[in-house]
Amino acid sequence: GDSVTQMEGPVTLSEEAFLTINCTYTATGYPSLFWYVQYPGEGLQLLLKATKADDKGSNKGFEATYRKETTSFHLEKGSVQVSDSAVYFCALYNAGNMLTFGGGTRLMVKP
Amino acid sequence: NAGVTQTPKFQVLKTGQSMTLQCAQDMNHEYMSWYRQDPGMGLRLIHYSVGAGITDQGEVPNGYNVSRSTTEDFPLRLLSAAPSQTSVYFCASSRILAGRGEQYFGPGTRLTVT
To answer: Which residues have a Cβ under 8 Å from the Cβ of A93 and sit 6 or more positions away?
Structure first.
């Protein structure tokens, strides 16, 4: 079946540092890929998405590129802020009725 | 728009008790779902519905029941609570045609079973 693997956290960075959170997937066909973010005490929010190979999703300074050859969708941001501290989930949708989530990566940004 | 609302925010149950977690959305979304979130395991789908009167099982349905009598509401029932059901529960909704990957989540219900 489909699966998503994310780097384990927590990831701790200083403000203005460069962020990469790795995400790889296993799926048949051509899934759509997503990054969701969960701020403390809240539900998940869609951060960005990509629906086909080589698409780049971007939002709020975050970017991720759908790489079919490496089955990856790594999340990047050039300069993180304290307000980016949250848990980030990589997910895929591949027909049917289910989103498949990775285990989540906690990001902590220190001033 | 309130989006997706869930009640209660917190709940403590004793083993064997039953309860219903409420979920409502005001976006006229056809698709609604329930997930549980456990540390290190991401979110796992419990049950989902593609419209009023239609429900189906997800990845981890045992011990839970759902019904969908209206477009807006999708309650989750725990029949006989067990400590293994201690978790955070999220309800989500989306349009069918826009792609079910783009889901709107409620704020969650934190459930502890003792």
So the answer is: A31, A32, A34, A99, A100, B99, B100, B101
Find the residue in B nearest to A87 (Cα): B42
**Token code pair at residue B83:** 């400590």
Which pLDDT score is estimated for A18?
98
pLDDT score for B99: 59
Cβ-defined contact of A89 to B59 (cutoff 8 Å): no
Mean pLDDT of successive 10-residue stretches along chain A, which has 111 residues: 90 97 93 94 92 94 97 97 96 83 94 95
Cβ pair A99:B40 closer than 8 A: no
Classify residue A83 as exposed, middle or buried by CB count within 10 Å of its CB (0-12, 13-18, 19+).
exposed
Residue of A nearest to B39 (CA): A103
Q: CB-CB: which of B42, B102, B104 is closest to A101? A: B42
| Under 8 Å between Cβ of B64 and B10 | no
Strand partners, B48: B33, B56
Per-residue pLDDT tens for B57-97? 999 999 999 999 999 999 999 999 999 999 999 999 998 75
- Alpha-carbon torsion B113, B82, A97, B2, what sign? negative
- Residue B50 near chain A (CB below 8 Å): yes
- The answer to whether the CB atoms of A44 and B105 lie below 8 A apart is yes
